[in-house]
Amino acid sequence: MSATVQTVPEAATPSDNRRQKLRVFIITENDPLYVVRFFDVFFSEYPREEIEICGITIDRPFHEPMWDAIRRVRVLYNFWELIRQGLRLFGARLRGRSIESLAVSAGIRVVTTPSVNQPEYVEQMRTIAPDVIMSVAAPEMFKPPLLGLPRLGCLNIHSGRLPTYRGMMPTFWQMLRGESDVTITVHRMAERLDAGDVVATQSFAIGKRDSLDRVIKGTKYEGARLFIKVLRDLRMEQVQSSPLDMKQASYFSFPRAQDVREFRKRGHRLL
């Protein structure tokens, strides 16, 4: 299935021969099943002569204790699907597969914190001085001190068309509502969730009878390449932003059991 890319028109800029590397700091969550696939691509393909990854923070899923996260996702899966996902997690741990291990292998500094909004963490980011903070499934909302810190702002990647599919599990909701594709969106972060100006979008096709597992994996791979393009354009000062019309905004929370039943009735699968 092919993907198409849409970006805001770019203006001509001077040669980048003397440009410094773009300093990027990443905030993400510890997900060895799906988010890790974003970093499989990102760490292997980002241009090191143009972009310097000056650190990464890897938070807990949903920024909550492990057992709370397990209870949350239990709503999605039936018994055998839960067993299958559990075996996947066990296999990932057995192989030492994680975002942290990928980062360490790439020589990227891992910065830990109980909360990205702690004053001590914000001061640490001030010392690191990234040009941009990159959010990839970051489970915490950024407060103004962190949002305002990077010279070029904070950017987030969201697997949904904004502002229609703000909130959690946008891939699930687009499939449930019969969309023909997922809209991967890179946008500037604001105090209001998923409300910042759009920088770039890319579509990823959804099959008539598809699996959430396949679509999420695909959007992670394509999203990594889209984010690399955005960072390269940002370095060249070729990024422009398109504001959202928040009159058209909606918000989706985590799916309930009845939502999952409707998802299956549509002919889709979780795995």
Helix and strand layout, with pairings?
Layout: E1 3-7, E2 22-29, H1 35-45, E3 51-59, H2 66-74, H3 79-95, H4 99-105, H5 119-128, E4 132-136, H6 144-147, E5 154-158, E6 166-167, H7 170-176, E7 181-188, E8 198-205, H8 212-235, E9 251-252, H9 257-265
Parallel strand pairs: 2-3, 2-4, 4-5, 6-9
Antiparallel strand pairs: 1-8, 5-7, 7-8
Description of the structure:
The protein has a single domain, classed as 3-Layer(aba) Sandwich (Rossmann fold), CATH 3.40.50.170. 36% of the residues lie in helices and 19% in strands. The chain contains nine helices and nine strands. The strands form two sheets. The chain has a seven-stranded mixed sheet with strand order 1-8-7-5-4-2-3. The protein has a two-stranded parallel ribbon with strand order 6-9. It is globular, with a radius of gyration of 18 Å.
Give a summary of the structure in a few sentences.
By secondary structure, this protein is an alpha/beta fold.
What value does the average pLDDT take?
91
Strand order of the largest sheet: 1-8-7-5-4-2-3
Tell me the series of helices and strands, N- to C-terminal.
Answer: EEHEHHHHEHEEHEEHEH
Uncertain runs: 1-5, 7-17
Q: Number of domains in the coordinates?
A: 1
The N- to C-terminal Cα distance equals: 18 Å
**What is the CATH level 1 assignment?**
Alpha Beta
